[in-house]
Structure formats: structure tokens, C-alpha cells
Amino acid sequence: MSKExxxxxxxxxxxxxxxxxxxxxxxxxxxVSMREEGLDPDIVEDxxxxxxxxxxKARAVHALTEGAYVMADDxxxxxxxxxxxxxxxxxxxxxxxxxxxxxFKKIFEMLKDVPEEERTAKFVCSIAVVRPDGSEFTVRxxxxxxxxxxxxxxxxxxxxxxxxxxxxxxxxxQMTKEQKNSxxxxxxxxRAMAEILRSEI
Length: 201
Description:
The chain is α/β, with parallel strands linked by helices. Helix content is 28%, strand content 24%. The chain has a seven-stranded mixed sheet. α4 (177-183) crosses α5.
């Protein structure tokens, strides 16, 4: 194998590409987005789990390559008091074009009768990788926290401003990149993925 290998991410989300790139820094993989590779498949995420949706995305992009490493992730916020919602619908919660402040408002309307200490939740990330030969694997990472009605922090993205991690005494949007990557669901899943890929090189 060549010294540097391309890992195509089945996403156009620049924040995800940057985050995965930071986590895989020091590995032989160069992280690029599918858009950078000129790939723009029409993907229908109709899986019922994070793993199924991640595999759907990775397979769709891999089918357009001439045999490449392709990675996709599916992640979301699972709120205990809402039976795991919004879960796999986190990005589409309140509608495709809703803003995150609108999503936050809706969540806390749904949690209005739930005491603050019981507003527990977890971020879940499932990563799927399709290898050049078409074989595949998935890994999962999770981080637990509590939802805070008042958003805090300018870092991160998505639900980070309302996801408070008691051990750090701050939201994931208030953490440094290093702090967040060390405990985040995507960080855990990415390191598990990197460990598998390293063992195969």
C-alpha cells in the first residue's frame, strides 16, 4: 500500500471532515469529503438504526469509487425521558430546514415536566467503513450527559451547546477541540475505527 491513503467521508459536512481529520492525524489516512472527490450520490437514509444508516451512506459512496476506503457516520442525540428521541432523526428533528435553536426550543417544550436532573441524554455515533475490496465493519461510540436549557459555548456544532458533561462542568460546545475529541461519541468511534484500520495496514 502507498504511504498515504485516502479515506473518503460520505458527508459534505465540513465540521465532521475537520473533526475526523483531527482525530486521525498521525495515521496514514488523508481524510477527504465526497464532494472533494466529485461524488454526490442521492442517498436515502431509511435505516432504523445508526449502524444501518451509516452503512447505507458508506455503500452508496463506495459504489461510485474505483475501490477506495469510504467512511460514513450516523450520529444523534438520544434523550432518556423521550424514549431515545430524536435519535436517528436528530438532524431532521422539527423539519429538514429547522435551525438548532428551533430544535432546542422544541426539545425543552417536550421536557417541560421533566426535572432538570432527569434530563439525561447521550450522544451516539456509529461509523461504517467500506474497504476497497467491499468488505465492511461498524463501530460505535457514546458519551453521556445532561441537557441544559440555556445554550452555552461557541465551539462544536449541532446539539453541543445544550449537552452538558458533568465530569467537565461544561457543555461540549465550551470544550477545547482536544477535550471534546477525548470524550466525544465521534472521537470514541473514530479511535475504534482507526485502531481497526491500523491493524490492517
